[in-house]
Amino acid sequence: MASAFDPLEHLRSPQAPEFDVFLQGIVFLDIIFTGLGAMPRGGEEVWADGMGSCPGGIANLAVASSRLGLRTSLGAAFGDDDYGEFCWRTLAEQENVDLSRSRRYAGWHSPVTVSIAVDHDRSMVTHGHDAPECATEMIGRPPRSRAVLTELHPGVPLADTWAAQARADGSLVFADVGFDATGTWDAGVLEQLALCHAFLPNALEAMAYTRTPTPQDALYALADRVPLAVVTNGQFGALAIDAMTGEEAHVPALRVAAIDPTGAGDVFTAAMALGTLAQWPLPQRLAFAALCSALAVQEVGGSLAAPGWGDIAHWWHEVRDGSGIQDAYRTSLQRRYAFLQEIVPDIPQGAVHRAAATIARLSDA
Predict the structure, then answer these.
(1) Please, which pLDDT band fits residue 222 given cuts at 50, 70 and 90?
(2) Quick one: pLDDT at residue 146?
(3) What pLDDT is stored for residue 271 in this prediction?
(4) The domain 15-307 belongs to what CATH superfamily?
(5) How far apart are CA 256 and CA 200, in angstroms?
(6) For the chain, where do the domains classified as CATH 3.40.1190.20 start and end?
């Protein structure tokens, strides 16, 4: 079997960290339904056109990273039930995610989420229990990695977590933050950015935490706190400032028919981490992340939708060579993504393609 395409091959050496990315979080079994015209009303049964089952939660980010060729390690709790066994097997055997810092816990019920995509949005129902052990205690000393991907939480200082140890060992910390359902948007969370290399909130989160009126203003406020500030803005694209390189960039969103947005943010984060580790210019990093998330939303969501280099290469070759009208939009794509020609001039041997599977099947990764 051909080895997977490695976009960081030029950086490999015996002295380099064992992993490119380490991350921690909760793994859910995701069951995803798509193709519904509307949510069911009381007592009504509706049939979905599409369905997929896959590891979800932090697994979305782990799979997105691994499919892009990043050597990925995950620290997570797994139940000893069939759901946990399926998620463990899929991540370790199909998606090539290292689970040496993960643990299986007897009697702990695996969390489950049912996600329903309707009208370009999603609704979810989740069942789960508290994690059986503190993440920092479970992981111990994180493995050496080029970067760690983590989420900031109010009241949980990053300095007290495994991520601070990873940073001390040389990892770049890429951080995100979740939606605050309380509406408090505690600005104290931003103090944790002192330990981060990159921060990648969406526009709503960025404006709420920085108390600013526009995504651009939020970006400037964040760029005063963290070397790489990125704000994603849905259909309006994404914007970023890299203080390390002195670059500022904005890219528009791609025109795609979105099926399910689940996991698109995770794909974006993984792609930005890859571009940063590969030392690409900021406009290329931002464009690449926008492309990867656009490819993701066209498929059944979650980890199933994360694109691999095979998908990226096919897209580029179609944009570069495909027949059709050569209008201004297509010309813009050819110009914006011309850097892919140096990376994937041909479909790389062993390139990963996304899964198109349910719980009973494996992908062609």
Answers:
(1) very high
(2) 98
(3) 98
(4) Ribokinase (3.40.1190.20)
(5) 22
(6) 15-307
The rounded distance, in Å, linking the Cα atoms of 203 and 218 is 8
Main-chain phi, psi angles of 183, to 5 degrees = 80, 5
65-106 pLDDT tens trace: 999 999 999 999 999 999 999 999 999 999 999 999 999 999
Strands 72-75 and 19-24: parallel
Please give the span between the terminal C-alpha atoms of the chain, in angstroms, as a whole number.
Answer: 11
CA-to-CA distance for 72 and 166, rounded, in angstroms? 14
Give the dihedral of Cα atoms 232, 236, 238, 240; nearest 10 deg: -110
The three state secondary structure string of the chain is CCCCCCCCHHHCCCCCCCEEEEEECCEEEEEEEECCCCCCCCCCCCCCCEEEEEEEEHHHHHHHHHHCCCCEEEECEEECCHHHHHHHHHHHHHCCCECCCCEEECCCCCCEEEEEEECCEEEEEEECCCCCCCHHHHHCCCCCEEEEEEEEECCECHHHCHHHHHHHCCCEEEEEECCCCCCCCCHHHHHHHHHCCEECCEHHHHHHHHCCCCHHHHHHHHHCCCCEEEEECHHHCEEEEECCCCEEEEECCCCCCCCCCCCHHHHHHHHHHHHHHCCCCHHHHHHHHHHHHHHHHCCCCHHHHCCCHHHHHHHHHHHHHCCCCCCHHHHHHHHHCCCHHHHCCCCCCCCCCCCCCCCCCCCCC
Beta bridge partners of 112: 29, 127
The HSE-up count of residue 196 (CA atoms within 13 Å, CB side) is: 28
Token readout for 212 is 């600013």
Per-residue model confidence (pLDDT) at position 365: 31
The answer to whether 306 and 299 have CB atoms below 8 angstroms apart is no
Mean pLDDT of 348-362: 56
Q: Which two tokens stand for residue 27?
A: 């793994």
> Residues with Cβ < 8 Å from 24, sequence gap 6 or more?
58, 74, 75, 76, 101, 135, 139, 150, 162
> How far, CA to CA in Å, does 280 sit from each of 29, 89, 171?
34, 34, 18
CA distances 327 to 23, 76, 319, 324, Å, are 42, 47, 12, 9
